Each structure stands twice: as C-alpha cells, then as structure tokens.
Amino acid sequence: MATGRIQRLRRGVYGCAHVDEQIARAATIGGALTCVSVLRSHGVWAGDSLRLHLQLPPTSSATQDPSAQFHWARPRFGLQSPWEVTPLQSLWQALHCLDEENAIAAMESAMWTGFLRPEQIRQLALHAPRRLQDGIRRMVNNSGSGNETIVRLRLERAGFTVVAQGHVPGMGHQDLVVDDCVGLDVDGRAWHEGNDRFATDRDRDVQAEGLGRHSLRIRTAHIFRTWPHTLAVIERAVADARRDRERRRGRVIVRFDDPF
Hints:
Strand content: 15-25%
Distance between the termini: 83 Å
Order of helices and strands: EEHEHEEEEHHHHHEEEHHEHH
Helix content: 40-55%
Strand order of the largest sheet: 8-9-10-11
Largest sheet: 4 strands, mixed
Structural class: alpha+beta
Number of strands: 11
Shape: elongated
Radius of gyration: 23 Å
Number of domains: 2
C-alpha cells in the first residue's frame, strides 16, 4: 500500500492498482458486478444506461448508492467470482431490467459475440418474462449490433419482411434487407470510421444498386431521436423500389459483357 501497488477496498479486501474500476467499486460496496454492467464490460449490447448494477447478498447492510442499481435476490445462476456474476446470470438479470427492444438486442448480441452459447440463450428464452415472448419469437442469430436488432424489430412490427445480413455478391452483406428491395445499413461510429471502411461501404452500395436493390443508410440518432420520420423515409424508399421493380419487368437488360 505504501508504494501504491495495492489499495484497500474495504476491511480485509485489497486490490491491485490496475484492477478494473467497476470491479473495485463492487468490492468496496461488498457486492458483485451484474446485469448490464457485466454485459457492457464484455462488449455485449446493454442499452444506453451507464448506471452500475451490483448483486448484493439478501442480508447485506450496504448503504444505498443513488448512482448504482442494487439487486438483492440470491443469483439464480451463481457467481463466477466474489466480484462478478456468471455470464448467464448477468443476461438473466438484464432481461428483467431492460425494455423489450434492448433485452432482445442483448440476447442476440450475446449470441453474436459468443458471450453465451446458443443452448444457454434457449434456456433463458424458456423462462424469460412474458413481455419478451413476441420479441424472442422474432430473434435471429446473425444480428451484427443492437441497433440492427432494434431497427429490424420495429420494421417487422410495421409490417415489413426484414432479412438480417443480406448478401451482396462479392461485397459482403448489408445489415438489413427490407421487403427484398431496399438494403439498409445501420451505421455506428465504432464500425464505420476510417477511409478504408468508408470506401468499402460505398462500393457495396454501388454493387447493391447494380443488382436492383436500393440502398439507404441511417445512424443512431435516426433510430432513437427521429424514428417516426426515419420510418416514413424507409416506407417511401420501399414503395419507390417496388414501383421501379414493376417498371423493369419485361425489359431486356443489357449486361456489360453482352455483345452489341
């Protein structure tokens, strides 16, 4: 302690100077990291709240902290250390804390990242709150981000058919394909920064347009700040794409490699 290599977190509990800040705080209070705090620390979708979630023993006398969310019940799926619950417990708890959209996004993200195995997701789905059952029936195992999941659920409930990770020959995938005629990419800063990624995204848009699939890009603000307008834009794009498809029927398409 004198050299700063360790620190006293609480009576009888010490931590290295480099210990994770949230783990140190959990140990200081006498609880274990749980729920969305564990998900976020492992790169799993956890909604937008940054509030610390801690699991405490039912007999704990810890002082309430307004900046933290305390969970007092005994963990159903146990602890993996005195300071953190198991991955299964963290997602189980998150299903009870998050709203429906974010809960389903967390489940799909847990599969996509490998945080939980498919059979563990199925186990949770069987016992999930009733309010999540419609979203669980709509789950897919290839959603690339929580934002993609939320957009897909909203569009499906608006009556569209939506496919996740729509293939673009030679250029990878578009995040979502709506009614088989509009490719929708949900751009997030973490995934679409940099000149190389920007160029690849635009090349894929051009390739998709060449296949007769219109392309549209939205960002996080379009989902959570201006969704009614965003939905109206997508509806218009799909309607226009359908009309274009009808006009093209019966035409002779000249390919670049056709002899003139």
